[in-house]
Amino acid sequence: MLNASVCDRIAKHTEPDLFGGCWLWAKMIRKDGYGAMKRAGKYVLAHRASYEAHRGPAGHLWVLHKCDVRACVNPDHLFLGTPSDNVRDMVQKGRAVHAASVTRLTASEVDEMIRLRREGLAFRVIAKRLGRSAQAVGRRLVKLGVSAPEIQRPDLQKLVLRSVEFDTNGGCWLWSRYVAKDGYGHACFSQRGTLVAHRFAYEVFVGPIPSGLSVKQSCGVRSCCNPAHLFTTYVQRPNAGLAPTKET
Ligand SMILES: [Zn+2]
Ligand SMILES: [Zn+2]
Q1: Ligand 2: centre distance to CA 62 (Å)
Q2: Which ligand is nearest to the CA of 198?
Q3: 57 lies in a domain?
Q4: Which of 70, 87, 121, 202 is 20 to 30 Å from the Cα of 154, by its Cα?
Q5: Any idea which ligand is nearest the CA of 73?
Q6: Structural domain harbouring 33
Q7: Which residues surround ligand 2, an ion (CB under 5 A)?
Q8: Ligand 1 centroid to 40 CA: how many Å?
Q9: Would you say residue 127 lies in a domain?
């Protein structure tokens, strides 16, 4: 059962880690590294709220991270387990040792993580190099506002490809992240806000959408992002005198 308003808030308040695919909660982060958000007047864990909004109630089970990034609220990185699953998972991933040795980041570590982030490395990779937890690194870098360099088009194409499911019958690329009530997919970006997924896919694979043009699916499937099924059309301002631009 999809809770659209919680999904929308999650899309709005996450910082995507495009390389690792994590959705980092950019609002309140608790001391232990988990995100928190208000839901129905009560503070709840953001990743739990995200899981429940996208997948359904978790009941008495815990919502655990596949990616080990506590601030991550990407439903694809979350799974249900029992508290003992959590302990087993921690031991397997060597996180128990980490948790016991959390100390403040030193100034030289902070300099190093800024340098690595500017090279475009994912939080997880930086954390590994420094022997720190990814959530500590992610939280600090988000706070400092250090972002990875401008993401290049091939990376954005990979991101789209990772975010769709391929329909073998019609050849559609069905958006597998958040799909709104109106049937259109949403792609969330901290810098640009929430984008409509198929418009984003068009820009990434075909080129900029001239202003005043709308992007439609020839297959009629609103969540489809296959550039071969997308075309631009005049919907508003038919006299604006714009023509679709070709890929340069
Ligand atoms: Zn994640
Ligand atoms: Zn299609």
Answers
A1: 36
A2: 2
A3: yes
A4: 70
A5: 1
A6: 4-105
A7: 172, 219, 221, 224, 226, 229
A8: 25
A9: no
Answer yes or no: is 175 within a domain: yes
Residue pLDDT tens, the chain, 248 long: 567 788 888 888 887 665 567 888 878 888 777 889 998 889 999 999 999 999 999 998 999 988 777 888 999 989 998 877 777 776 666 554 444 345 677 888 888 888 888 777 777 778 877 888 888 888 888 888 877 666 667 778 888 898 899 998 889 999 988 788 889 988 765 445 567 899 999 988 998 888 888 999 999 999 999 999 999 998 754 444 444 444 43
Distance (angstroms) between ligand 1 centre and the Cα of 222 equals: 27
Query: 1 C-alpha to center of ligand 2: Å?
Result: 24
Domain count, the chain: 2
Instruction: Give me the phi and psi of 117, to 5 degrees please.
Output: -65, -40
> Which-ligand-closest: CA of 223?
2
